[in-house]
């Protein structure tokens, strides 16, 4: 089996990645978008040739020089990415309404994922409507032993005993969960876990715990900044996985996150993410 290559657009950069036969993913390089017009391959090297205003070649820069990789296939992946981008821009450049619809769909999907995660966490930690809890709440309370026989009663007097009512357990608590909702939650958890395991576009704040919390955060979002201390505390009990997004900051957020995603060391990724919210980086810490 051979190594597969693909390239994706991230703001003003092109991320080149390789998928090894064992499934491992490696980010080979992050190249500037405006420096891809003079790419050539020579001796299994990916080289950028720069020209001056007169069209004369004046500088060559080796971008990728790794013998275990195939420079020709890498160049093909970059070319495919640029061609697809060109076709999309040419087709929809005159339809701002379509781009607005696409942006709305992306925001809706992100909001749906976030709301689903919130409902799941809320149900796990705060739901106490099990049949046992309902039945326990409906049973009459017994008097303490020191008050149970304080006043003697005449044995001939029969005190009315109210009939014990059957506690009606809500049908929702005793029936099985909605299969479609359960399947949707399972699929969502599977997708999030698979992407987190690949580690391409995620930042792991902690690991080694039984449960995992996924958070979609924007470095430019003030509400995300307020959530940062809580995530640090939760990281001691849960696997906290960050999915960086750019809903608020746009390209500015993307430019700040892109260097972190290129970092292979998970600890350096996490430390870099915390620095994004530090006062030295332009944000007031809570």
From TrEMBL:
Signal sequence, start to end: none
Stored SUPFAM superfamilies: Thioredoxin-like
InterPro entries: DiS-bond_Isoase_DsbC/G, Thioredoxin-like_sf
Alphabetical UniProt keywords: Membrane, Periplasm, Redox-active center, Signal, Transmembrane, Transmembrane helix
Any one cellular-component term (Gene Ontology): periplasmic space
Subcellular location: Periplasm
Bilayer-spanning residue ranges: 97-118
UniProt keyword Transmembrane, yes or no: yes
Protein family (similarity comment): Belongs to the thioredoxin family. DsbC subfamily.
Function: Required for disulfide bond formation in some periplasmic proteins. Acts by transferring its disulfide bond to other proteins and is reduced in the process.
Protein name: Thiol:disulfide interchange protein
Organism encoding this protein: Salmonella infantis
